[in-house]
Give the backbone structure.
Amino acid sequence: MTKEEKIKYWTDLSERDLQVAEMLVNGKQFLWAGFMCHQVIEKIFKGYYTALTDETPPFRHELDLIAKRGEFYEMLSTEHTTFLDILNPLQIEARYPAYKDRISKTLNQAVCEKIWEQTKSLHQWTKEQILSIK
C-alpha cells in the first residue's frame, strides 16, 4: 500500500464513522455516539500520523498519545487538547459493562451534541492539516 493509500484508508474510515456518529446522536444513542466520536478522531489522527511519518500508526486508542507520537500534539489548540480529555475515556468506558452505567449518566442530548460539534471541528482541522502536506 502506498502512503497515499494508507492516508485514504484512515480518512475514509473516519468519514464513515462521522456519519454513524451523527446517526447515533440523532437517534439518542448517547453512549455509542460518544464512542463513535472517539473513533472518528482516532482514525483521522492515524491518517495524519501516517501523512507526517509514513509509518504505521501505533496500535493504541489514546488520542493524545497518537498525536504526541506523530509530533502534532503541540499544533492542537487548547480547545482541542481539552476535548481529547473528554473523548479519551469514551473509547474504553463504553466497552466495559462496569463503566457503561457510570459514563451513560454523564451523556445526554446536549452533551452529545456538543461532543458531535467538537468532533466535526477537530476532524475538519485534521483533514486540512493532512491536505496541506500532500
About this structure: The CA atoms of residues 24 and 32 lie 7 Å apart. The mean pLDDT is 94. Helices lie at 3-26, 30-53, 63-69, 78-93, 97-104, 109-133. The radius of gyration is 14 Å.
